[in-house]
Amino acid sequence: MKGSEMDFAKRAHDHNYRMDPIVRSRLDSDAYKLFMGATIHEKHPMTQVVFQLTNRTKDVRLADHIHVDELREQLDHAQTLRYTPSEIIHLRGQSYYGHTGLFKDGYIDRVAASRLPDYEVSVNEETGQFDLRSGGAWMDAKEWEIHYLSIVNELYTRSQLRQLSRAQMDIMYARAKVRLYAKLERIVREAPELTISEFGTRRRHSFLWQRWVIETMKDVLGRQFVGTSNMLHAKELEVDVKGTIAHEMSMVYAALAAPDGPQAIRDSQYRMLQDVQSVLPEDLRIFLPDTFGTTQFLENAPTWLQWWKGFRPDSKESVEAAEEAIGFWRRMGQDPKKKLLILSDGLDVDLPGEPGNGADMIAIHKAIGGRTIDTYGWGTNASNGFRGTVPGRPDLMRPISIVAKAVEA
Amino acid sequence: MKGSEMDFAKRAHDHNYRMDPIVRSRLDSDAYKLFMGATIHEKHPMTQVVFQLTNRTKDVRLADHIHVDELREQLDHAQTLRYTPSEIIHLRGQSYYGHTGLFKDGYIDRVAASRLPDYEVSVNEETGQFDLRSGGAWMDAKEWEIHYLSIVNELYTRSQLRQLSRAQMDIMYARAKVRLYAKLERIVREAPELTISEFGTRRRHSFLWQRWVIETMKDVLGRQFVGTSNMLHAKELEVDVKGTIAHEMSMVYAALAAPDGPQAIRDSQYRMLQDVQSVLPEDLRIFLPDTFGTTQFLENAPTWLQWWKGFRPDSKESVEAAEEAIGFWRRMGQDPKKKLLILSDGLDVDLPGEPGNGADMIAIHKAIGGRTIDTYGWGTNASNGFRGTVPGRPDLMRPISIVAKAVEA
User: Fold this and answer.
1) Which residues on adjacent β-strands are paired with residue B248?
2) Interface contact A4-B166, CB threshold 8 A
3) Where in the sequence of chain A do the CATH 3.20.140.10 domains occur?
4) B343 CB contacts (<8 Å, ≥6 apart)?
């Protein structure tokens, strides 16, 4: 059933009387895991890592909202999932940024064989948070990240929905739809050349809501909508899949270099990019400059980095990050107009009568003003844009900021 | 299935491949037909009348939107309907304005035996309108009025929906929900003593939408929501049924008096009320003053009319009508604070950022300021409040003004 045909409120209601699996396919994850995996498989096939969940929204005591058994039930279900033969065929046959045959057979075979390693979960009674972690081969353990996030987010969503009447839910979904639509219409009207991808898997309200968001973006934005990071939605909704590499790569490389001292750690970020460069074609060579601070990263950047296709700042105000990227390319003698800048940090679209969040995509796009090829990854505020939509309960449906990071390697 | 559990857009989509009956029960009509019927049965059991459809929105050529066969199919289906035994039990057992046993057994037996008389329909090629009419015993023929209106309105709705994409429909319904909800919230916030009934059957977008509207009014307005005119929704949603008498009564009485000249016509409006008074208890004695103009009606009103419980102006600006009602009661030595004023003419609730229609219930209520017991019947703008909700198609979903009147008696 297509997302847009769902009655979200009814569906949410149904959650309250039976197990409704949140993750139903290994493809329900972000493509950057697949892209990073190619390098990991080639360069670090035996590296062991531990991923751990952290809730940065400390005032939300997750264990007060989600029963640990409910969490276990979902994690156990996810752990039963394998890539199906047709999913593997899809990964192999799919084109990524126009490239087919991107991955070597050995890598795809390894993906097909992967399983989610065992996890440990307990409740920290003092903080009210879950201690949730999973260790194993980097290739396998990294897959938990997105599933941890989508499971915990959707269980949290359900816990909030249980506090709502049927009518409150109904209006909540109607308001969220109207709001998203108004934002998309504003983009089409005011910035008809701005291109957007959907990056919301990790913070989504629910699987089905994300699906509706993607369908609606596709419908309203037309050619301005260039893809989603979610491999399952991309496959089922016939849209391009998008992704780069993530902080995870630099962090694990740094952890592995740590025994060799500070200089080795600093060098590790470039060695990681060198490894990626030897595995991924140019169109997928997008670097994140800011795992340990953008300024030091760019100052010490090796010459060859100028040839990379693009730059994805992820922890800095977007216009400031854009200026840094443009400055870097100019210093290197590159034409920024031929380079790609992917912005995705807390973006939104302001609407009249609603408080903006200071990261209006349209304003950022206008500030960049064509000096480079800017494109936008829209996350939480699309896939979880419910703040203030519940009649009489402005406290509900605030997205929480959870992450799952490699904490040991 | 409850209305609020419907996915309206999906449902609308489904209409395009099979016959989906619009009228599914004889109870899906307005209660004033039942109340008027008591007098008609007693005083005019043999009177023959003809009801005819008129579309006052002449620039909408209905026959260009609705195929006459589609119309026939729905009318034929409606004609097959009889009150079911349990519906008759319901009519008999139901309390109306706190009264049980309101109707004599003979009357309910006559209702149970009623069937919709044959109709004639053709297309006027010049005007693009349907010539749709039905003649028979007043008791039976009058029942077509509401069914004509709900069938033609919903077929028109469907013709508009066929022009929409799935996403346009989805947003249209979301916007209409958000808008209605905002109006209800404004009532609760700004006029917590204002009472409202739902009167939208005759102009509704669709049966299911009306149902959603009633459920939502019940949920948001709580005790401020006092009922609906629709007998089926009232029964299924456990709300009170509301109704008075309509212009129809005065018009048929006037037509019957016409052969006796102008004075007989003028007198007929009071004779009609006298007949009603002999059949209905005080709580249902609400007069419409304006079939042939309020001023002449009140000037010549018989003394006993002062004892009637209330007054329902229906073709005059509401505050002006309220002043006339209050003036009438004062002249008669009655305390207007003990009288009921039912307002229902094109009412709406203004919202910030939307053009008002000049009939804001809250403003009217404040202007009346407690000088009489005012209560509000909300029709078209609740049950068909879709104007401007379709993305990119502001021309669609304007409600049309159709009526079905007794044209011969």
Assistant:
1) none
2) yes
3) 3-163+399-408, 166-383
4) B312, B313, B318, B321, B322, B361, B364, B374, B375, B376, B377
Residues whose CB falls within 8 Å of the CB of residue B7, separated by 6 or more in sequence, listed in order:
A5, A6, A7, A10
The stretch B193-207 carries a mean pLDDT of 97
Q: Which segments of A89-248 are extended strands (E)? A: 119-124, 129-137, 196-198, 225-228
Check if the beta carbon of residue B349 is closer than 8 Å to that of residue B361.
Answer: yes
Instruction: Quote the CA–CA distance of B333 and B335 in Å, as a whole number.
Output: 7
Tell me the Ramachandran region of residue B288: left when phi exceeds 0, alpha when psi lies from -120 to 50, beta otherwise: beta
Q: Give me the residue from B174, B215, B353 closest to A174, CB to CB.
A: B174
Query: What SS3 string covers chain B?
Result: CCHHHCCHHHHHHHCCCCCCCCCCCCCCCEHHHHHHHHHHHHHCCCCEEEEEEEECCCCCCHHHHCCHHHHHHHHHHHHCCCCCHHHHHHHHHCCECCECCCCCHHHHHHHHHCCCCCEEEEEECCCCEEEEEEEEEHHHHCCHHHHHHHHHHHHHHHHHHCCCCHHHHHHHHHHHHHHHHHHHHHHHHHCCCCCEEECCHHHCCCHHHHHHHHHHHHHHHHHHEEEECEHHHHHHHCCCECCCCCHHHHHHHHHHHHHHCHHHHHHHHHHHHHHHHHHCCHHHCEECCCCCCHHHHHHCCCHHHHHCCEECCCCCCHHHHHHHHHHHHHHCCCCHHHCEEEECCCCECCCCCCCCCCCEHHHHHHHHCCCCEEEEEECHHHHCCCCCCCCCCCCCCCCCCEEEEEEEC
Q: Which of B1, B11, B14, B171 to mutate to test the interface with A (most CBs of A within 10 A)?
A: B171
Strands (DSSP E) contained in A138-217 are 196-198
A331-350 tens-digit pLDDT = 999 999 999 999 999 999 99
All residues of chain B having their beta carbon less than 8 Å from the beta carbon of residue A173 are: 174
The top-level CATH class assigned to B166-383 is alpha beta
Q: What is the pLDDT of residues B370-408, one digit of tens each?
A: 999 999 999 999 999 999 999 989 889 999 999 999 988
Which among A166, A170, A208 is the top mutation candidate for probing chain B, defined by the most B β-carbons within 10 Å of its own β-carbon? A170
How confident is the model at residue A2, as a pLDDT?
A: 44
pLDDT tens for residues A102-122?
A: 898 899 999 999 999 999 999
B119-124 and A402-408 strand pairing? unpaired
- At B98-140, the pLDDT tens digits run 888 889 889 999 999 999 999 999 999 999 999 999 999 999 9
| β-pair type (A340-343, A373-378) | parallel
Output Rg (C-alpha) for chain B, integer angstroms. 21
What interface predicted TM-score (ipTM) does this complex get? 0.74
* Length of chain A measured in residues: 409
Using alpha carbons, select from A38, A28, A26, A33 the residue that is nearest to residue A102: A38
Distance CA A318, CA A342 (A): 10
| CA-to-CA dists, residue A203 to A398, A406, B7, B87, angstroms | 11, 18, 26, 51
A181 in contact with B, Cβ within 8 Å: yes
Minimal CA separation from A69 to chain B, in Å: 30
Asked whether B111 and B91 are in contact (CB, 8 A), the reply is yes
CATH superfamily of B3-163+399-408: nicotinate phosphoribosyltransferase (3.20.140.10)
